[in-house]
Design brief:
heterodimer, A: 216 residues, mainly alpha, 9 helices, 0% strand, B: 387 residues, mainly beta, four-stranded antiparallel sheet, 2 helices, 28 strands
Chain lengths: 216, 387
C-alpha cells in the first residue's frame, strides 16, 4: 500500500493486472470522510455553542448531539459524493482526450488517491481541534452571523489558514497519485493524464487560495 | 345868637378831641383790615433723596381769616442746590376764609449729601407775603447686600444654598426691593423682598448647582426704589468649585483583553473599584459608541449595581472593533444617594494582533508548513523518478 504514495506508477501498473475492486478504495474514502466528519462534528458543536444565548439549555444539549451527528454523517456522505464526482469529472475529461477504460476502474484508482488526504485530514483535524479547544466562542443571536464568523476565522486565524494550506498540499499529493492512476485506468499519455487531473485540481486549488483571502 | 355862638365855642374843644381820638385810633383800624395766610404743613417725598433723585415738596397754604377771602397771586420755590423742575404757581385764585390749599413742587436732588432748605415764597393780593423754609435731606447711602451663609466647600454637581442678607441703612423706607441673578446655575433667578424700612434687614436664599469645577463668580443685583427712583447695587461672589472629596470615585484595574478566535471581537474583563468615600449606586458599564466600535453579546453592557466605598466588582464586556480602532471607550454610569446621575469615560487600548489559539508563533507554523511541503514535493519527485 505504501507504493501508492511513493511509487504510484508501479502500484497502478500492478493493480491493472488484477480485477476491479472498490472495497479498499471505498474504505479509504470512508476513513477520509470520517476524519472530515470529526471536523464537521466539532464545527457543528461550536456553531451551536455560539447560539447558546438564544437556545434553552435542554434544547441546546439535544441540538448539539443531533447537530454533531448530522454533521458527521453529512461529511461522510459528501466525501463519498465528491469521490464519485471527482471520478466522473476525470472520466469525462479523459473521454475528451480519447481515454479508454471503465468508470469503475477510474473510481477505484481515484479512491486510492485519497490516502494522502487521510494524512492531511488527520493533521488538519488536530490543528482545528487545538484551535477550537483553546479559543473563546463568541455568542450570537442571529444564525446568519455564524457563517460570517467562520469566514473570519478562516480569513484571520493562522491555525485555520495553516490547516487549509496543509489540506491543499495533501490534495496536490493526491493529484499526483491520480495522474498515475488515470494514466493506467484510462490508458492515457502522461501529458493527457496531467491535463485530466490538472484542470479540476487547479480549479479547486485556486478556489482554496481565493477563500484564504490571498486573491480575495 | 351870641348865646348860641358862645355855646358853639364851648363845644369846639370837645369836637377837636373827638376828631383827635378818632384820628389816633383810625390808623390801627385800617391795619387790621389785611388778611392772614399761613403755611400750615409740608411733606417731602421721599423722606430722604439720593443723589439725582426726583421728589416732590407739598405745602399746605391756609387762609387764617374767618370772614375774608384771600387772593393768592403767586407761589414759587427757590433753592440753589436742589433743582426745582416744576414752574411757579401763578394767579392761583382766591382762598376762602379758613380754607387750605396744597401746592406741590417737583425737585431733583443734587450730588452732595446734606440738609437743604428751599424757600417757599407766597404772594397774596390782600395779604402779606409769606416766606417759609422747608428742610430737604439728601442722603445717598445705598442699601447693603452681603453673604449671610454659604457652604465652605462648593462641590461640582452638588446643590449649595447661599443666603444673602439685604440691609437698609438709609433714614427712610425703600420699596420694590428684589435680588436678581442671571446665572443659569442659580435657582431662583429672583427673590422679591418688597418694602424695607430703615435699619431693617431681610434674608434671601438661593441654590447654586455648579456644573463645572474651577473659579466661578456669582453676580447678584440688588434692585430697589427710593420713591419713584430705581437704584441697584451689585454683589459679586467669587467661588472655587471643586470635585467632591467624599463622592464615589470609580477606577478600573486589572484590565485584560482577549481576542476571540482571531476575530476582531474582544472580551474586556477587569475590576471596577470604588476608591471614594460614598456609595456608587446603580453602576452600569457599557461600551461607548464610536466609528468601527460595536458592543456584542453576551455582554453589551454589564450591570454592577451598588458599589460601596472600598469595594470592587469584576466586569466583562464584549466588543467588536475594526482594525483601525486602537482605543475603545468604556462608559461608567452611576448615581449618588440623591439620584444624581454621573457618567465617566475610560479608554481601553486595543492591540490588534493575529490570534494564535494554540500559542504557537506564526514562524513555527511556517516551519511546519515548509517541512510538509518539502516532504510532499520530495515524495512526488520520487514518484516521477521511479515511474
Amino acid at each position: 500500500m505504501l507504493d501508492v504514495l511513493i511509487k504510484p506508477n508501479k502500484f497502478f501498473e500492478a493493480r491493472m493486472k488484477e480485477a476491479e475492486s472498490l472495497k479498499v478504495p471505498l474504505l479509504i474514502v470512508l476513513i477520509s470522510g470520517m476524519i472530515s466528519g470529526i471536523v464537521a462534528f466539532l464545527m457543528a458543536r461550536i456553531a451551536l455553542e455560539m447560539l447558546s444565548e438564544t437556545l434553552p439549555p435542554e434544547a441546546l444539549g439535544l441540538a448539539s448531539t443531533i447537530g454533531g451527528i448530522s454533521a458527521f454523517v453529512g461529511a461522510v456522505v459528501v466525501s463519498l459524493v465528491i469521490w464519485v464526482v471527482f471520478a466522473a469529472v476525470f472520466f469525462g475529461i479523459s473521454w475528451l482526450l480519447k481515454g479508454e477504460g471503465t468508470f469503475k476502474r477510474t473510481l477505484e484508482f481515484v479512491g486510492y488517491g485519497y490516502i494522502p488526504m487521510i494524512i492531511g485530514g488527520i493533521i488538519s483535524a488536530v490543528l482545528i481541534y487545538n484551535f477550537i479547544s483553546t479559543a473563546q466562542i463568541p455568542q450570537v443571536t442571529d444564525p446568519a452571523q455564524i457563517a460570517e464568523i467562520v469566514t473570519q476565522w478562516i480569513m484571520k486565524s493562522p491555525m485555520l489558514q495553516l490547516s487549509s494550506i496543509i489540506g491543499t498540499l495533501f490534495m496536490l499529493w493526491s493529484a499526483n497519485i491520480w495522474v498515475f492512476g488515470l494514466r493506467h485506468a484510462r490508458n492515457l499519455s502522461t501529458k493527457n493524464a496531467l491535463i485530466t487531473v490538472g484542470i479540476p485540481v487547479a480549479l479547486y486549488v485556486l478556489y482554496s487560495v481565493w477563500r484564504l483571502g490571498v486573491l480575495g | 345868637m351870641a348865646v348860641r355862638g358862645a355855646g358853639m365855642m364851648k363845644l369846639l374843644p370837645l369836637i377837636f378831641l373827638l376828631l383827635f381820638v378818632v384820628g389816633i385810633s383810625g390808623a390801627p383800624v385800617a391795619g387790621e383790615q389785611k388778611a392772614s395766610v399761613m403755611i400750615t404743613g409740608y411733606q417731602v417725598s421721599p423722606d430722604a433723596l439720593m443723589y439725582n433723585d426726583i421728589g416732590t415738596i407739598t405745602v399746605t397754604v391756609k387762609n387764617m381769616e374767618a370772614l375774608q377771602s384771600v387772593k393768592i397771586k403767586e407761589a414759587s420755590l427757590l433753592e440753589r442746590e436742589i433743582k426745582v423742575l416744576s414752574d411757579p404757581y401763578v394767579s392761583i385764585g382766591s382762598l376762602g376764609p379758613g380754607e387750605s390749599l396744597n401746592l406741590s413742587f417737583t425737585i431733583r436732588a443734587g450730588y452732595t449729601d446734606g440738609i437743604y432748605y428751599p424757600r417757599i415764597l407766597l404772594e397774596a393780593e390782600n395779604a402779606e407775603n409769606v416766606r417759609y423754609q422747608i428742610p430737604v435731606k439728601i442722603d445717598s447711602t445705598p442699601l447693603t447686600i452681603g453673604v449671610k451663609d454659604m457652604p465652605e466647600e462648593i462641590v461640582k454637581g452638588e446643590r449649595a444654598e447661599i443666603k444673602l442678607v439685604v440691609g437698609n441703612p438709609r433714614p427712610n423706607t425703600v420699596t420694590g426691593v428684589k435680588i436678581v441673578t442671571d446665572d443659569e446655575n442659580v435657582i431662583p433667578s429672583e427673590v422679591f423682598i418688597g418694602t424695607l424700612s430703615s435699619d431693617e434687614s431681610k434674608v434671601a436664599s438661593f441654590n447654586f448647582t455648579p456644573q463645572t469645577k474651577g473659579v466661578h463668580t456669582l453676580t447678584f443685583s440688588l434692585e430697589f426704589k427710593n420713591g419713584d427712583n430705581p437704584h441697584s447695587t451689585a454683589l459679586n461672589i467669587p467661588l472655587n468649585v471643586t470635585e467632591s472629596k467624599k463622592s464615589a470615585e470609580l477606577i478600573l484595574t486589572g484590565i485584560e483583553i482577549e481576542s476571540t478566535l482571531g476575530m476582531s471581537v474582544y472580551k474586556i474583563t477587569g475590576d471596577i473599584n470604588n476608591a471614594g468615600l460614598e456609595e456608587a449606586r446603580s453602576v452600569v458599564m457599557k461600551v461607548g459608541e464610536g466609528e468601527g466600535i460595536e458592543a456584542m453579546h453576551p455582554y453589551k453592557s454589564y450591570f454592577v449595581g451598588l458599589l460601596s466605598p472600598d469595594d470592587f466588582s469584576s466586569f466583562e464586556l464584549d466588543v467588536q472593533v475594526d482594525e483601525n480602532v486602537t482605543k475603545v471607550p468604556l462608559i461608567i454610569e452611576y448615581k449618588d444617594e440623591e439620584g444624581n446621575l454621573f457618567s465617566m469615560i475610560e479608554y481601553i487600548s486595543i492591540e490588534h494582533r493575529p490570534a494564535t489559539s494554540s500559542g504557537e508563533m506564526p514562524v513555527s507554523m511556517i516551519v511546519v508548513l515548509v517541512v510538509i511541503a518539502l516532504l510532499i514535493i520530495g515524495v512526488v519527485a520520487y514518484s516521477w523518478k521511479k515511474r
